Amino acid sequence: MYASREDIGYDFGDDSKVGSKPIKPNPNIDGGWAWMIVLSSFLVHILIMGSQMALGILNMEWLEEFNQSRGLTAWVSSLSMGITLIVGPFIGLFISMCGCRTTAIIGGILNALGWILSAYASNVHYLFLTFGVTAGIGSGMVYLPAVVMVGQYFQNRRALAQGLSTTGTGFGAFLMTALLKYLCTEFGWRNAMFIQGAISLNLCVCGALMRPLSPKELREKYVVGNDSEENRAKALSQSTETIKSNGVLGEEPEKKEEAANEEVLGSVQHIEIGGKSGSGRSMYGLRLFKTVSQLTVTVRKGFALWYSSYFGAASLFTNRVFVAFIIWALFAYSSFVIPFIHLPEIVKQYKLSRQDNVFPLTSIIAIVHIFGKVILGIISDLPCISTWNVFLMANFTLVTCILTLPLMQTYIGLAVICALIGFSSGYFSLMPVVTEDLVGTKHLANAYGIIICANGISALFGPPFAGWIYDITQKYDFSFYIAGLLYMVGIIFLLIQPCIQKKQSRHKSTEEAQV
């Protein structure tokens, strides 16, 4: 179908031309420090996404403690998951201005603060603010930089690198489920959240590992990547027809902006040189003014890049395939989140708690999820395989499992379906790769921020909706059926839009040939 960036991509005009002189590959691209970035991202996924996948344990504790409805209580977990992803576009602005490292460190502090404050909750509404909003925003400020940095450091092994780093979600779901069960049993849920908050401070260490690439290193990545014989062979073998679009990011406004910024800084330096003979107090004021001016320039440049990506003439939203990708994301994530939040209750309803205590169904999803991400990442990196097609096949498998799950009322049947859900949901490791193929590395932070924002909206409303349906029908069956059907609608958008755009491209080429 569509495989390479040329196939499903969107040309923003940011690719460097291949030079005539051979350029020595940067040792930190696809190797060296790049693997430390993978380790950092892996730990981030354990501490953030893994913890969120284990919230079903705390959800049962909150139901007993506050004696509220399942729909209302589920909002605590869904707010945390949803806000983590919804704030993606705004975190893209932070990254443009401050960089991934600073953003992640601040987010780690905020996330830990949210967990610790939640230990003192007196009602569910208090948890909305402390755990849902505070911890959720902090999680988002660490999660997006962790994904973006892996995309920056890898060229030829992107799918594998993203697969390895995002396996932290599976490891985290397995480890955090066991940890939270133990902590809640031994110390109570309040102390468990306090301890988890202390553990979350390790996110600051993960952020410190996110060493940014210099502009020179980024240019070397583009040139070497474009000149790679392996990439060219893969593109030629998979390409069917280029999908082109109308918008091209204008470079002139950026150049004018940079010229204006240089003029401001130059005038400040001129004043500073001219005032060297002045008093010490005047020099201190000039230095302070220079620092403020440099900070202002950084903020302006970051905001300009962020604004142009979302609202400029070459907006990401002019890429129709990317828009279809957003529509898919709006429906997809809730189908994965609902089982994690409500499976403990479903097991209790089916009187399968004894078997589930031996080996929890959520742990089955988590363990198989690890292998799914790695295996799908390895398959997608093969020269003869289309990442786009692997992504679609995994989605079809997952939606089939979601629609089938209510029919299973034995532990063995549920375990098989959960294993398939875990493996097929490994496509999450391919989402950054597909996004980068669509928009390019330059716009990856903002574009992936939009995608996870759409996923966040899905995660925000999915669990409360399932809880609301249960409060009405006393069954979870209809929740899975409705979520699965909406998910199928999103997949259909992914299939239809590229075909329409391909047909339009052919028609346009035919008209040009006739003229």
TrEMBL record:
InterPro entries: MFS, MFS_dom, MFS_trans_sf, Proton-linked_MCT. Pfam families: MFS_1. Gene3D superfamilies: MFS general substrate transporter like domains (1.20.1250.20). One of its GO terms (molecular function) is monocarboxylic acid transmembrane transporter activity. It is found in: Membrane. GO terms for cellular component: membrane. This is MOT14 protein. It comes from Agelaius phoeniceus.
